[in-house]
Specification:
The complex is a heterodimer of chains A (229) and B (114). Chain A has 229 residues and is α/β, with parallel strands linked by helices. Chain A has a single domain, classed as Alpha-Beta Complex (Spore Coat Polysaccharide Biosynthesis Protein SpsA, Chain A), CATH 3.90.550. Chain A is 45% helix and 15% strand. Chain B is built from four helices and no strands. Chain B starts with a helix and ends with a helix. The model of chain B has no long low-confidence stretch (mean pLDDT 85). Classes of the chains: A alpha/beta (229), B mainly alpha (114). At the A-B interface, strand 3 and helix 3 of A face helix 4 of B.
């Protein structure tokens, strides 16, 4: 429960995040969040054990299917089992800050928005590396062209989904392209959305674990192919 | 000599298509399509002048060019079909993985509650 009396669930997709998942969950506990669901996406390390030890509920995919698939499992399971008012999607690698959650969920819980999307470019605080900034900006232009929706940050994993969004969003891409899927679904299902400034922390660990530059190009090709098939 | 090799290859390809039809992994429509395609190959191999007539009818100079263009179009179509098929299998696999994971988790948590 959060201050407004609404039920909140935090869904964390995780693949080989044994080193970071425990401290990520602990940081959420420290801010008073207890409903944490980790989707262990076929990790080959001790991610599931570490998440359980830290006090999260863990669902394990039997094989690795990608972040989009893990999010779909988590959102669906939380929705069917706990019927929450808000679901927050949160990265496992420590890039997101639990302190940003209250301002992220406010548009959904109090202002009637269906979905709130975190944006690292609405704040000066995020230390986005130069190359990553260029790629992300290119992604924004690409998404504007493909999904016809104007956003300042299209690949931010920190989001808050209200009931309408969690019921209607269907993530078609199982990999990192799911971020564009969600934006597509917002446009297609005419969901009321809002961007909220959030800080993204780039550590040595998150940079190593994060998407490679070539991955973004592949992602664009996959999205385009999916559009024509 | 080349004509005989192509003839053998076509007979082999048609027999493979027929066997796949017999074991129901190919439907009648697809079998007819494959038969027509290989029949067209045989006609063009044994009567190449026909391809020139067809090419001039379409406004292309040589019959060989039209065969080449047709091959590219057919290959593109086959790649497209394969892509959609693979994508559909991939989506089913993701769905299966999700349902198994949820089922295993539900059984485990129900067991723990008991």
């Amino acid at each position: 429960m959060i201050n407004s009396g609404k039920k909140l669930y935090i869904v964390i997709p995780a693949f080989n995040e044994q080193k970071a998942i425990g401290s990520t969950i602990q940081s959420l506990h420290n801010e008073g969040y207890s409903n944490i669901l980790v989707i262990n996406d076929g990790s080959v390390d001790e991610t599931a054990w570490a998440a359980q030890e830290a006090g999260a509920e863990v669902i394990s995919h039997i094989i690795n299917r990608g972040q989009g698939a893990a999010l779909q499992t988590g959102i669906e399971y939380a929705r069917e089992t706990y019927e929450p008012d808000v679901i927050v999607t949160f990265d496992a690698d420590g890039q997101h800050r639990p302190e940003d959650i209250p301002s992220l969920i406010r548009p959904v819980t109090e202002e009637g928005f269906d979905i709130a999307l975190g944006s690292r470019f609405l704040t000066q605080d995020s230390n986005v590396p130069f190359l990553r900034k260029i790629i992300l900006k290119a992604g924004i232009i690409f998404t504007r062209f493909v999904s016809n929706i104007k956003l300042t940050d299209t690949h931010n994993g920190l989001r808050a989904l209200g009931k309408k969004a969690m019921d209607s969003i269907d993530i078609a891409h199982r990999g990192m392209e799911h971020a564009s899927d969600i934006i597509d679904e917002i446009s297609r299902k005419k969901l009321k959305y809002m961007e909220v400034p959030v800080k993204v922390i780039y550590s040595e660990y998150s940079r190593q674990k994060g998407q490679k530059t070539s991955g973004f190009i592949k992602m664009g090709i996959k999205i385009l192919i999916k559009k024509i098939t | 000599m080349l004509k005989i090799i192509i003839l053998f290859f076509v007979v082999f390809a048609v027999s493979r298509a027929y066997l796949r039809f017999k074991d129901k992994s190919l439907d009648a429509r697809a079998l007819i399509l494959w038969m027509a395609l290989w029949a067209a190959v045989l006609v063009l191999v044994f009567h190449p002048q026909l391809s020139d007539n067809f090419a001039s009818f379409l406004g292309v100079q040589r019959g060989a060019d039209i065969a080449f263009l047709a091959a590219i179009v057919i290959l593109f179509y086959l790649v497209f079909r394969l892509y959609t098929k693979v994508d559909s299998v991939d989506q089913n696999l993701t769905r299966l993985n999700k349902n198994i994971s949820k089922w295993v988790h539900n059984n485990k948590t129900n067991g723990d509650r008991k």
